[in-house]
Amino acid sequence: MLRSVSPVLYFLLVVSAHVTVAAKGIPRRRLKLADDEASRAASESRDNSVEWRQSGGLEPGEPAAAFTVPTLSGEFVYLPGAAASAETTLPPQTRSGCGKGCTSPPKNTVKRRFCPGFTCRRCRCLLSATGSPASCTPGPARGTIAAWPRPSLRHRVQNMAKSNASGVLVSALPGNAIRDMNCVGAECFAPLSLPAAMVHLQPAVTHALRSGVDVNVSFQTTPSPNFFIAIDQQGALAEMGWFLYPSFSFINWQAQWFDFSAALQLKLESPATVLPVFDKVQMQSDKGAVADVNIPPDLSAFDTLMLDASLSCPGSRDASCPRWDHTVRLFVCCDRLGPYCHVELGRWITAFRRGIGRWQTDVSPLLPVLDAGVCRFTMKTAPWAMPWVVSLNLRFSVANLTGEKLRPFRVMSLYDGGTFDKTYNRRYPPIEFPVPASTKKVELYAVITGHGSDDNGCAEFCVTSHHFLVNGVHNNTRSFDSAGSALGCAEHAKEGAVPNEHGTWLYGRGGWCDGLQVDPWRLDVTTQLEVSGQASNTIRYLGLFNGKDPDPTQQPGYIVMSSFLVFFK
C-alpha cells in the first residue's frame, strides 16, 4: 500500500491482466510503430470490427468497497468515504556503514555511505571513493558483482560489457532499497549487449568473491504483472494503464495524474458561464463530431475562454480504446463568408489505448472568432482511427476584476505549417500589416506540433525551432528541446499527460505528448511594433532543424501550425 503525498490515494496492487509480450526484447530506442499512415489505417480498420465485451464484475469509475489487507507493519483497513485506519509507508533508509574505512560522499551528491576500495574481482575494476571505476582490465567472460551507489548505472553496465563481462549484478548497499537502473540522455537509446539486474546485497556472495570462490549467476526473463487497479481520491476504482517494465515510476506517474485530475475538478467548480458543445458524442470518420451552438449575445462581458475537453472510449475499460496517437483538432465557423470561418480553436493528442483524458485549455485570445449568433463546431481526428467519445464545454469568465480590462477584438491569421523539407521556408513570405487604431496590446499566438519521422527523426522526435521575426529585428523563438528525450512526456503526467499508455508514450515529442492538450504559445510583442497606425510592420516565419533549413533525404515529416496576431483594446 502506498499513500499519496497530497490528497490520500490508495493503490490496490491487484493484477487484472498479464501480458506475455510486454517488455521482452523491447529496445530502448525511438520505435517506429508503423511504416506509414496506410499501415496504421489497415491496423485500425481491423480494430473497428472488434466487439468489446466486458468480463463482468466491477468497472472503472464504480465506488471501491471496503477491504482489509495484512501488511508487514500491521493490518491495513480501507473504508469508503473515510481515511484508512492505518497506513503503510516505507521505513526511512538505514545509514549504516559497511565496515571499517567507510566514508560519506560529499554533500549534494549521493546521500549514502559506501566503502572505497571494493574490488569487482571478475572484471578487476577497483572502485574509487567516488564510486567510479578507477581502473579496469578485462577478465574472464563471467558474471560480476558490483556496488555502485551513483545514478547512471547504465553507463557503468556498458563499460562492463566492454570489459568482456557476460552479465552484471548491481548490489544495493546495506539499508538501501533496490531502485531503477536508469539511463541518462542519449545512452537511453543504445541497446545493452548483456543482461543486467539490481539485487539486494548478499553477504555470502560478497564473502565468496573476496575469498576467490567462483559464484554462478543465471539470468532469465520472467513475465511480470503490468496491469493494476487503483482507488482514486474520490474513492472510485480506476485502471492504471500498462506498465512497460517493472518499475514504481509507473505508479508514481499515475499518482501524479490523479492529483492533476483532482485539482482540475476544483478548477471546474470556479464561476463561469458554461456552454455545452458535445456531450459524449462519438467522433469517427472524416466527418468527426459536429454541433451547431447558439453563442451568448454579449461576449464583451468576458475576457477568458477555456476549453473543457475530454476523450473517453466506447467501453468503460481501456481495452476498448483506440490504438495509436492521433491529432484531434477543433474548428469553428460562425460566418461562412467571414474571415474567421474554419479557424482552429483547440488541439489535443489522443492517448494510446487509455480513456481517462480530460484537460482545460486557455484560448482566450481567440474570443473574436465567435462573432455570430450560431457557430458550427467540428472536432475530428484521422478518419481511419477507431472511435473516440468526446465531450466539450466552452467556459466563459472574467479573470481581471480589478485592473484595466483588455479584450481581444481582432485576430489576424499568419502561417499554417506544411511538409518539413528543404522547401519548407520558401513557402512563407514576410507579411506586412498595420496596427489598428485603439490597439493597446498585440500578442503572437501559435499552436505548433511536429509529426512524422524522416532520417533525422523529424518532426516528431527531432528538436526543431520556430522563429517569428518582427520588423527584421526581434526574433521570437519556440524550440522543442525535449523532443526525443527518454522521459520527456512522462514528466508531464503531473500536468495532465495520460500516463501508462501503450506504445512509446514516455518519449518527448515535437511540441506535444500522447494524451495531452497542446497549449498555445503566447507572447506579448507590443513593444516590437510601430503602433501609431501610420507605419507598416512586417513579420516573417522560419522553421529550422539544427539551426538550418530542414533537408531530409527520405520521408520528410510535417509541421501542423495555426498562428495569429491578436490585437487587444
Report on the architecture of this protein.
There is one protein chain. By secondary structure, this protein is mainly beta. The chain has 4 domains: 1-34 and 59-89 and 224-265, no CATH class; 119-210, no CATH class; 268-405, Sandwich (Jelly Rolls), CATH 2.60.120.230; 406-569, Jelly Rolls (Sandwich), CATH 2.60.120. The protein has 4 helices and 29 strands. It has a 5-stranded antiparallel sheet with strand order 13-18-15-16-26, with no helix packed on it. Strands 20, 21, 23, 27 and 29 form a 5-stranded antiparallel sheet that branches. A 4-stranded antiparallel sheet has the order 12-19-14-17, with no helix packed on it. The radius of gyration is 28 Å and the shape is globular. Mean pLDDT is 80; it is low at 1-39, 45-54 and 84-149.
Q: What is the topology?
A:
Elements: E1 10-17, H1 37-47, E2 67-71, E3 74-78, E4 119-120, E5 125-127, E6 133-135, E7 143-146, H2 153-162, E8 167-172, E9 196-200, H3 203-210, E10 227-231, E11 237-242, H4 249-267, E12 273-283, E13 289-294, E14 304-312, E15 327-333, E16 343-349, E17 357-362, E18 374-380, E19 388-397, E20 408-413, E21 417-419, E22 431-433, E23 441-451, E24 464-470, E25 474-479, E26 516-517, E27 521-524, E28 537-545, E29 558-568
Parallel strand pairs: 7-8, 8-9
Antiparallel strand pairs: 1-10, 2-3, 4-5, 5-6, 10-11, 12-19, 13-18, 14-17, 14-19, 15-16, 15-18, 16-26, 20-29, 21-29, 22-28, 23-27, 23-29, 24-25, 24-28
